[in-house]
Amino acid sequence: MAVPLEQALAVMVSTFHKYSAKQGDKFKLSKAELKELLTKELPSFQSKQMDDAEFQKIMSDLDVNKDNEVDFQEFACFLACVAMGFNDFFKDQRQKQLRKK
Ligand SMILES: [Ca+2]
To answer: What topology is assigned to 4-100 in CATH?
Structure first.
């Protein structure tokens, strides 16, 4: 029986492969694959509709080795950044709650 953190890690890997396998290199996300993944799997990350320039900026930030694809290592760094953002949000909320008491 899988526990939540192990399940979350498995979801990170399987989600990456679900999109990376669609076209071209099966183990890397192309720009189109990354865009589809962000839109469908991280809708709250895309709270406002991202325009092409913003998406291009994210793509070039993530593509550390500049091969125009996002491999799993690059994707994992991105997820870590998103997780840190969630952690900051959680900490802010928690501090607000504590101040009210
Ligand atoms: Ca890359």
So the answer is: Recoverin; domain 1 (1.10.238)
